[in-house]
């Protein structure tokens, strides 16, 4: 069985396991929808208070948020448990992925499915649709293709950043605090346009922890706001490239971490 077939089988088993608790599924989805509605409401209140955010209207900020959450929804559905890697290492259960005749990464990746990402995806589609209509956008096939690539790139960027930070636990035994710090950067970018921040922050989320490529830069192209970055206009098209670079980097970190691993004996 090749890695893709193995992963799909593991995902199917994980979904079947989750669906045994349907009441938990329904309440969880409702909770995530309410949380996102509250977040969007807070953004609307802020923008209405100040009319706009450095030239960004309420519908444009909703577009920004929706683009981010679409990429995040796929990550949260299939990859959220990467944040818990330290638990497997501390408890010694990571050994289970090493003694089986398959890729440890595929086995770990297919371990869980977080169905709450379905609610995030629904919110993202709804918010993007409302923004598209109210901003009177008119995209051609190339724009729609770029949107799909940007969403997938956002998923990969969040996945690879999370994986690399989680791999810190192979050396230190702990990684969640570092993950929490990066999540705070991610939250800032998802709520607000990057151009309202200072230069240091913009450089940080562009070149060090490139979460700005999840929504801000592709949104500039899709919304026709490339003038906001002037001679750096090409950054708006680089989300897929950044995602591939991050995949290569995270693969290297993962291989290095596996060589460093020694069982805790749990």
Order of helices and strands: HHHHHHHHHHHHH
Average pLDDT works out at 85
Helix content: 55-70%
Q: Count the beta strands.
A: 0
Please, how many domains? 1
Distance N terminus to C terminus? 30 Å
Shape, principal axes of CA atoms = globular
Count the helices. How many? 13
Largest sheet: none
Question: What percent strand?
Answer: under 5%
Low-confidence stretches: none
The Cα radius of gyration reads 19 Å
Structural class: mainly alpha
Summarize the structure.
The protein has 266 residues and is mainly α. It has one domain. The protein has 13 helices and no strands.
Structure description:
The chain is built from 13 helices and no strands. The protein has one domain (3-260). Helices cover 70% and strands 0% of the residues. The mean pLDDT is 85. α2 packs antiparallel against α3 (58-78) and α2 packs parallel to α7. It is mainly alpha-helical and 266 residues long. The longest helix has 29 residues, at 22-50. The chain starts with a helix and ends in a 6-residue tail after the last helix.
Summary keywords:
70% helix; mainly alpha; globular; 266 residues; 13 helices
Outline the secondary-structure elements.
Layout: H1 3-18, H2 22-50, H3 58-78, H4 85-91, H5 95-98, H6 104-109, H7 117-134, H8 141-166, H9 169-172, H10 176-191, H11 199-208, H12 216-222, H13 239-260
């Amino acid at each position: 069985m090749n890695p893709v077939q193995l992963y799909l089988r593991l995902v199917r088993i994980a979904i079947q396991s989750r669906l045994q608790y349907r009441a938990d599924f329904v309440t969880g989805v409702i909770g995530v929808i309410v949380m996102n509605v509250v977040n969007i409401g807070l953004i609307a209140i802020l923008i209405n208070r100040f009319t706009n955010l450095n030239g960004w209207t309420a519908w444009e900020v909703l577009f920004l948020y929706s683009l981010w959450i679409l990429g995040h929804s796929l990550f949260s559905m299939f990859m959220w448990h990467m944040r818990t890697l330290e638990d497997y290492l501390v408890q010694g259960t990571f050994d289970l992925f090493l003694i089986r005749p398959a890729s440890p990464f595929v086995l770990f990746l297919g371990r869980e499915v977080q169905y709450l990402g379905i609610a995030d995806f629904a919110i993202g589609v709804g918010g993007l649709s409302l923004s598209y209509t109210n901003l009177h956008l008119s995209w051609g096939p190339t724009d729609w293709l770029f949107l799909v690539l940007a969403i997938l790139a956002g998923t990969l960027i969040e996945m690879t950043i999370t994986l690399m930070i989680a791999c810190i636990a192979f050396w230190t035994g702990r990684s969640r605090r570092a993950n929490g710090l990066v999540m705070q950067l991610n939250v800032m970018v998802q709520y607000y346009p990057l151009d309202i921040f200072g230069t240091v922050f913009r450089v940080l989320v562009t070149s060090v922890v490139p979460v700005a490529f999840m929504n801000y830069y592709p949104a500039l192209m899709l919304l026709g706001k490339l003038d906001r970055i002037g001679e750096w206009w090409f950054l708006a098209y680089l989300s897929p490239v950044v995602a591939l670079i991050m995949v290569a980097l995270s693969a290297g970190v993962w291989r290095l971490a596996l060589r460093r691993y020694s069982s805790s004996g749990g």
